[in-house]
Amino acid sequence: MSLKFSVGDLTIHRIIEQETSFVPALEMLPGLTAEVLAENRAWMRQAKALDEQDVLLLCFQSYVVKTPHHTILIDSCIGNDKPRPRPKWNMKTDDTYLRGLGAAGFAVEDIDFVMCTHLHVDHVGWNTRLENGRWVPTFPKARYVFARQEFDHWTEQNAKAQVAPFADSVLPVVEAGRHELVGNDHEIGDHVRILPTPGHTPGHIAVTMGRGKDDAVFSGDLMHSPLQTLYPELSIKFDVDPAAAAKTRRSFLERYCDTDTLCCTAHFPSPSVGKIRRKGNAFVCESI
Ligand SMILES: [Zn+2]
């Protein structure tokens, strides 16, 4: 399995926490019909995107990117010791994630920036870890970059009723003074930019990297299954604004279609990374 990619002057590592069955395809994608699922079942099973019970298989991972100047971690996965409704995530204590980070050659002190494409539970988990009964930043030297619009959205939600991942994985970073709230014009050095991609959440961003051009793009949750490149109109039930998510998905896929940009998805099955190519009136993410 490919865990490391090089493109331009970037080195990209995948840190996998789980690759597992998630939610039945017909439930996760409310616009999906049994007929369309049947037409796509064979290749999806082959690609390990669908299991024998028609449940979607997803990868949960971070990307760690070395630019010539910085080491940047994108999306911090699920985390440990956190009460979560999903049994596979609830109060887990395994060392898979930190072991994966170590195997890629990184200590937690090596991360200069943590960036979150959005503030959902499986993208903020390792922002913090439990130390003497308190949530502390896992990456002690990192600046944590949050999109201001996304942060404001969850601040508002959390004021109405506590949002656990925001409370245990985002606010402790703020309390430790390690965060930066940024607009969509924010850049880090000459290698890292933000691409607003609203829909899944209101302030969802993709992160583009490369000097002067997008050698790689980290697409976060603007899509979850390779089925959505073929049917960009299919939004998932967790998309806050399904119509906006569908529009964002098609324009993102069109933007990178037939370019050399490496598309690094958050949740596609391994290898999770590929180049967007046209197929009929839609797209595929072709492994490299
Ligand atoms: Zn996600």
Automatic annotation (TrEMBL):
Entry keyword Hydrolase: yes
Superkingdom per UniProt: Bacteria
UniProt keyword Lipoprotein, yes or no: no
Annotated signal peptide: none
Family matches, as Pfam families: Lactamase_B (PF00753)
Domain Metallo-beta-lactamase: 62-267
InterPro entries xrefs: MBL_superfamily_lactonases, Metallo-B-lactamas, RibonucZ/Hydroxyglut_hydro
Keywords, sorted A to Z: Hydrolase, Metal-binding, Zinc
Recorded family membership: Belongs to the metallo-beta-lactamase superfamily.
Identification of the protein by name: Glyoxylase-like metal-dependent hydrolase (Beta-lactamase superfamily II)
Organism this protein belongs to: Bradyrhizobium ottawaense
